[in-house]
Amino acid sequence: MSDQRRRCINDNCTSKPKSKLHPANKSMCNYYNVPHTPYRRVCGACLQKSIIYFDRIGRRFKNGKCILDDQYPIKLTSIIDLSDSDDGNAANNDAEPSTENLNDPQIAKLRTLINTTLKDTVGQLYKKQEELCQSYLMSEKAKIEAENEKLNNLTQQVDLAIGQLYNNLYKFDSQRRFEYDKEISIVEDLNNTDEDTVLSMTLPRLLDDIPKECKPIRHLLKLGDRVYGMKHSQMRPWFEATITCEFIDKIYCVKFDDETEKVLNYKNLAYIDAASQAQYPVGSRVIAKFQDVDIKLTDKFYVGIIAEPPKLLNNFRYMIFFDDGYVQYVCHKNIRLMCGESPDVSDDVHENIREFIKEYLQKYPERLMVKFKKKQVVRVELNNVWRLAKVKNLDASLVQLKFLDIKFERTEWIYRGSNRLGPIQDKLCSNNQDKRVRGTVLTDVNRLLNRPYIEIDNMTENEKSVDIDNSDNTQNPQENNGVIKLIQIPANCPKPHPYKHHECSHFCMLWVHYDYSQTKYMNVLNIPLHYGFMRSVLTDEKLKLKKVIYTTPCGRNIDNENEMYNYLKLTSYNNNQMPMDLFNFDCLVNPLSLLSVPEVFIRVQDISYEMEFKPISVFNSLNDLVPDHIKYITERKIGPGVNLNIDSKFLCGCDCIDDCEDKNKCSCWQLTYMGPKTYPAIFKDHDDIGYSFKRLHKQVITGIFECNASCKCKKTCLNRVVQEPLKTSLQLFLTEKKGWGVRTLADIPKGSFVCTYLGVVRTEKDADSDFPLNWGEYLADLDFLEKVEGIKDGYESYVVQSEDESEDHTSSSDDEEFNPSWAIKNKMNIIESRMLLRKNLQDTNTKIDGKHKLSKLNTQQKDVSKNTSLLRYLDRDCGIYTLDAKVSGNIGRYFNHSCDPNIFIQNVFIDTHDLRFPWVSYFALSNIPAGTELSWDYNYMIGSVKNKRLMCHCESKNCKGRLL
């Protein structure tokens, strides 16, 4: 007998364990919320309790009262019954009553009579009970809704009280409350698909206290008008006054509230009313309240100029350049318009910032800005001394810097375009401006090393909308441009044998007859699939991860690069060992993807005319044009006046016979490691530097030294990549806006070598002579030394000791020039010294000398580096050498620019170790799908060439809008 037969169905029964049990019918089981079975039992006390309940409910039903308006029992959690098979059968039998004698006429007549009697006797009671229950439920629902409304009101009151408390704790005039327009729906047409995608966006709008953009109107002043006037000087606060007399030429006599009188012209007066019906345009002369998060100074006005209009990027505030050199964001309500200004408003500002303001307004809306990230270190001018400072915070066009190399701790907000910042000053003092458009082929060092770097900010373009349909730089092949298809491996290609236990040797692959010279028209990643390998993508059900499995010709399964490399070594024969870059274990890369284009638009079958191992076709579906003829080369050419020695006797070579697997023993690998070891704080993971199975996943600024002709290693060496023939399937095609470009016909894995940039090596003087004719088109500087030297600039900033260290340190005097080798070991206290001066100026009765110590927006201080560049010892007359691909070049000359590039440049040394002549090589920055245009960042400096403006059409998400 099961346990249920020996206990009461009431799970909360308080009867004694051995109390007498009675059979429980369906109503009893329903009362205690348990399924009914024949073996259910109930004790006497629980039976009496249920009988009393049903008797009470019956009386309420009979008397026409609502049965729900009663104390009904608490439902218990359903119990899962683990009964044996016999009990289960019993339950089933009970659940399915016998149908015996159902067809008996007498029984059927009796059933009809019973139903009729029940309908006549209790039918009206059922109907009335239904109405009573419905009314009861509606009443209960109304009560619950009323309680919910009370809770909602109470919650709103609590939120309001918390908000008021927050505002009282953090009450500043600059705090804003933003409102948002109603959501709008953007329907994206997905190329005639059955469904449209609806994107909901919430767009911010201008605040209620910011008027629309239009020209502000200056009304004429009259006697009795209240104004703000310059009581002392441009450096000090302005105060309220009343106009008492008017003279000629808009000169007025005003009386301040302390009875002081002064004669001022309209340029030294400001309107007292803030209810302007127009936004203040950039360059407007204004007075504005100055405030600080540490010292609440919100009741005094200082004179300045509008430098930035209210926009979403600055939280709808104006940026003000104050005459005393400070800069701050101010709300519209805290600004007053000056009663007048000069035609050239820079004539009205203080002489200390006049030149800066004049230049700023001439170049606006384009601004030279430093791009910062928190915790970066930068050189900053302070009191005519260059010092180190760390980025503490960012606010749109402002950066908060914490000075490190002074005895006391000091923080300051600085405009990101001020030449008090080292990167701006270096750019202004550079001698390389206005020379060459493509001044470098190496990605900006500062950006790569996560240092502050310069970018051009355009206030009219920085909030431009992004085209949802084409928001990246990926070219989606459509219509005439071709379609992506999957390659079909021929049926007669070798297939893997069933695996049998064996020791792998060259016999495992000898039967497939691999020969790389026969793979000219194959995509590099599907070459193994033509020679007995099979590639599968499997899903690990436990980890929910996908992984790539290669099945070898002998039936062995391999899922990682190390194992594959060892297999290729064991199975190699003669010189036909498969290289590692034919294999890829990334499931996002498809070796069978291929861009298929209409043959009718192929204008040239191979622009290299079989000089490259892989043919490079020319595609043009827009018109009948073909590229201008060039002399296609596969090796760089030497121009006149260039002394390039490529004799292998002058090269350092390795003695490796193991394909240079052991990087510690290979002298060529050690040359690559030597540069990064000089900068341990920048290159921290030395094991991740250089090639990894013939792929480069991270740029090595100090250069890569490949094995060369004097090395004893074989051609299969892992340190021979760039020197190999072209393997990538490329196509030259005509774009709609960018001219000729290059795209890949097959998937390219991340880190793969793409091709080189070749041309004629020319001297800097020789290349500059042609600059006025071609604007530096197809020129690329061999500026490897210059970029490596750039790492040294401020290198010590990256080895600043932790602020937690509390060793004593004595700062140099203020008269000493900036020296980047200073160690920063002292922990300093926060003292806002510049704010203390502002605080003292609030009290107009305080005796002061009238001089305001400037926190300058700009400085004439020049940073003279004490580091000696190697360039001073090499070819002083020749300067930097240049690759000119205008007349002679290769496919690398056609790559277009993108602000979100998918390939990057790497300097590699192969045929010479002369640091002036590296090979310029392209590598994949990410996985690149078939049909995608290949592009790299030209790293042009916008505005570097006068009277030259070149728009950018890369259409990437981070497009800057301009190249020059």
TrEMBL record:
Residues 948-964 form the Post-SET domain. PROSITE patterns: POST_SET (PS50868), PRE_SET (PS50867), SET (PS50280). Pfam families: MBD, Pre-SET, SET, Tudor_4, Tudor_5. InterPro entries: DNA-bd_dom_sf (IPR016177), Methyl_CpG_DNA-bd (IPR001739), Post-SET_dom (IPR003616), Pre-SET_dom (IPR007728), SET_dom (IPR001214), SET_dom_sf (IPR046341), SETDB_methyltransferase (IPR051516), Tudor_4 (IPR041292). SUPFAM superfamilies: DNA-binding domain, SET domain, Tudor/PWWP/MBT. GO terms for molecular function: DNA binding; histone H3K9 methyltransferase activity; zinc ion binding. CDD domains: SET_SETDB1, Tudor_SF. One of its GO terms (cellular component) is nucleus. The keyword Protein transport does not apply. Residues 137-164 form a coiled coil. One of its GO terms (biological process) is heterochromatin organization. Keywords: Chromatin regulator, Chromosome, Coiled coil, Metal-binding, Methyltransferase, Nucleus, Repeat, Repressor, S-adenosyl-L-methionine, Transcription, Transcription regulation, Transferase, Zinc. Residues 728-939 form the SET domain. Residues 652-725 form the Pre-SET domain. Its main location: nucleus. This is Histone-lysine N-methyltransferase eggless. It comes from Acyrthosiphon pisum.
